Structure formats: structure tokens, C-alpha cells
Amino acid sequence: MKSRAFTPRTQSLSSMMDSKLKSLLEDVAHYTTVDENSKQGETPIGPFDKFADSNNLLIFLQMACSKCVDRVLQYVSNQLTDAGTALEGMKDSEENQDSKLVLLNRVLFLGRLCAAFCDLTPSLQKCMLGLQAKETKADQSRLFGRRPGRQTKGKTTSEPTEWDKTKALFSEYCDKAYCVWTKRKSQDLIERFTDKILANDGNTALQVATGWEEISIQEETEDGRTVTSTIRLPVQASWYVQSTLCKLCEEINRVGGHAIPRSAVQELITSTSDGMISTYEQIVEDNKKGDKSKDCVPLTQPRALQFLFDVKFINTLMSGRKDNSNTESHSIRLQNLIDLFEGYIDPFDLDVFTPHLQSNLTRHTMRCAVLLGALSSPDRPTYSHRPVQTGHHEQHNVLPLTPSQGRFSLLPLSTTHTGYGSNQSLLSKQQQLTSPSLDSITRSSVKTEESHANDTGSSLYSKLGSFRSSWLS
Questions:
Q1: Among 23, 178, 39, which Cα is nearest to 111's?
Q2: What is the pLDDT of residues 317-331, one digit of tens each?
Q3: How far apart are CA 386 and CA 412, in angstroms?
Q4: What are the CA-CA distances from residue 460 to residues 103, 129, 455 (Å)?
Q5: What pLDDT shows up at residue 7?
Q6: What 3 state SS string does the chain have?
Q7: Alpha carbon of residue 453 to chain centroid
């Protein structure tokens, strides 16, 4: 149950509903199911034929259960509408955090309950099938009585059953509940992200400051002399980007992201990334207009470099989009934003910065691949099996795994390893040093056998000599 994220309250409600439907089926079975013992003998004579209206009873049971399911779904729909309206009218403040969390938990509970009714109530399936279940059993018994090699050419009924329709309705309302949760959480995260990135006071600037890396490069002048210069580049995403992504992962793991439909999780990730990109586009527009009323911070080259790194990091990590019509438009939009940020960087500096910036981006993505793994798509891994070549020694590294990680590459590898052949040579050398050679083992075994044969011969001669002396005497 934990793997499906079914809480004890969800299980108790599902089991209560299943037990009531099970008792109802047991009562109806007295008038719809013939006892197997009565088939062997004669049919018992009674005041009336109690199996005459068995089909009508099953149809009525199916209709009554359908009405009951409709009432349950109508109640769920009203609760979701009220929760969505309350969440939209609630402001993002510390006073409303508890009430907002209660509403979100209620919405998630309704979504899990709709999913649990399909899996934890087998009696509901029997009630919804009704007469169709009886006909299915008759068809199966008729097929079992046929010859194995004989195939039937009957018409295959592809029409969905009432149970299939009911499952589709429960799944639809489950998706609606997750949509309410997805919409609200993405709005909260984007609002906090926008407030942090647009703040221009000194405290916020110190809080969001990240570490940059100094790289020494050598250039050759026209005279043939070598000139060494130092450049500074970002090595990690901004703190407001990392905090937003971490909170997003915490929320997904809190509600049980492994049991939520992948479409709901992907919708949350997509809406959050689109909102973050829209914030960056707003920054560029404000700097182009030069609106002084908003007190916007000028977009200098270092700030543009950091924003460029952030946008590429968001795109690389949260790139698990579906292959649909929106994918092409998103790629065009992202490329336009990257071109705008590159326009604030000197072209000659950009040519020098690009390979080092890409290397830092790849290394940072691999480091965050495990911590932010809930955001990446399982079909599109964010790192490759090949280690990243770094031009300097890193102080902190992930523990290296075995060099031949063909199948289970769970941790990102950020260091250079030796090849498989060198490991084999080292292993063979170690075996040669620690294990005795074959010649020494053979010589020792031969010496042992010769000494044992000599001992056997001497003991035989001594016994014969003692026997001869005792016989002659």
C-alpha cells in the first residue's frame, strides 16, 4: 500500500465500502446463483422459482451501483471546485500556510480515494459487471468444453463494460484533483521565485550570491608571445533557482511522486519551468525599456552570464517534455531567450567563455542529478556514462564507482577513471604477488608424494624383517 501511496484512511474507507457491497452480493447470490450441490440431484421444490428474476436482479444491482457512484463523484467534484476556489482567493502569506496545506491535502486525499476505489474494492467491480459477469462465465465454460484445436469464429465484442466506464470516471476525477494541486503549487513556487529574482536590495544580493570559478587561459599574441589571463565564470545555478527546484522536489516526494501519474508530475514540472522562463523574459523586457519606476537592476555582463547559466541549467534538468506540438514552440522560445542573454556579453569574450561554461554546466547538472532526480525524465537521462574531463583537481568529488557501469549507473561520475584493461593488469599483478606460482605448488606436491612413498617402503621392509625373524626363531 505504501508503494501506491494509499494512506490508512483511504484503505479504511475502501475496505468499508467493499465490505458493504460484499454483504449485498451475498444476499443477492441466494436468488441469482444456483448451488452446486443441487445440480447433482433433483431441483428442490419450493413455493416459487427464486431464480426466475435473477437477470432482473443483476441489472437492478448494476443500475443502483451506478447511481451510487455518480453521487460519490458529484460530491468529489463539488469538493474539488470549492477547494480550487478557496486556494485561488488565498494570498501567499505565512498566516495562510496552514489552511492552504489543509486544502491541498484534502485535494490529494480525494484524488487517492478515487484511485483506491478502482483497486481496493473488488466487490464494486462485481456489482458493476452484473449480468455481464454471468454471461462471461457462461462463455468461458462453453469455451473450455470445446476441443483444444478448434477455434471459434464468434464476434468479438469491443464495447467497454460498465466497469470500464466507471474506472474511466474515477480516473478522470483523480486527474482533476491532481490538476488542482499542480496548478496551485506551481503558482506558489513561481511567485516566490519572481519576488526573489526581482528584489534589488543589498541583503537579497548577498543572499543569492554564488561562487564563481577562476580559470587561467593562455593566448598567443601577434608577436608570438604567450599571454596568460584569468577569467571568472559561474559554476552553479543561482540560489533562488536551486531553492525553487529543491522545494519542488520536496513537494513531489512529500505527496508520493512514485505513485502519482507521470502526466501530473510532468505537468507540474512543465508549468514551473515555463513560469521561471517567463520571469527571465520579463527581466530582459524591463531592461530593454529602461523602466526606472520599477528600479530594475541593469543587466551587466556578469549578471547576463549567470542568467545564461541558470536558463541552460533549467532546460537541461527539466527537459522531460512530451513529443507534441508545444515542444517546438518551447525550444524556439528558449533559444530566443538564450540569444537575448548572449547579446549582453561581448562577442569575443563569449567565444572564450562558451566551452568552459558548457563544461561547468555539465558538471553541475551531474552533481544535482541525484538530489533533483524527481525533475528529470526517466527516458532522457541528464548525464552520460562517460566521465567529464576537468582541467583541474576538484576538492569535492562524488565517490567513484566501478569503471564498467553498464547497467546500474545510479550515481553521477565526475572523475576520470582508468580503463578496464589497466584494472585487469593491476589485478593480475596483484594476484602474481599474493598467490604462489604453479611451479612451486607442483614441486611441493611431488616432494610430498616421494617422501610418502619412501616412508611406505621403509615401513614395509621393516615389517617383513620382523616377520622373518619371528618365524625362524
A1: 178
A2: 876 555 555 677 888
A3: 10
A4: 98, 92, 9
A5: 84
A6: CCCCCCCHHHHHHHHHHHHHHHHHHHHHHHHHCCCHHHHHCCCCCCCCCCCCCHHHHHHHHHHHHHHHHHHHHHHHHHHHHHHHHHHHCCCCCHHHHHHHHHHHHHHHHHHHHHHHHHHCCHHHHHHHHCHHHHHHHHHHHHHHCCCCCCCCCCCCCCCCCHHHHHHHHHHHHHHHHHHHHHHHHHHHHHHHHHHHHHCCCHHHHHHCCCCEEEEEEEEECCCCCEEEEEEEEECCCCHHHHHHHHHHHHHHHHCCCCCCCHHHHHHHHHHHHHHHHHHHHHHHHHHHHCCCCCCCCCCCHHHHHHHHHHHHHHHHHCCCCCCCHHHHHHHHHHHHHHHHHHCCCCHHHHHHHHHHHHHHHHHHHHHHCCCCHHHCCCCCCCCCCCCCCCCCCCCCCCCCCCCCCCCCCCCCCCCCCCCHHHHHHHHHHHHHHHCCCHHHHHHHHHHHHHHHHHHHHHHHHHHHHHHHHHHHC
A7: 70
Q: Which residues of the chain have pLDDT under 70?
A: 34-46, 48, 93-94, 131-158, 202, 290-296, 319-326, 377-473
- What is the rounded CA–CA span in Å between residue 434 and residue 9? 61
Which grid coordinates belong to 199? Answer: 528584489
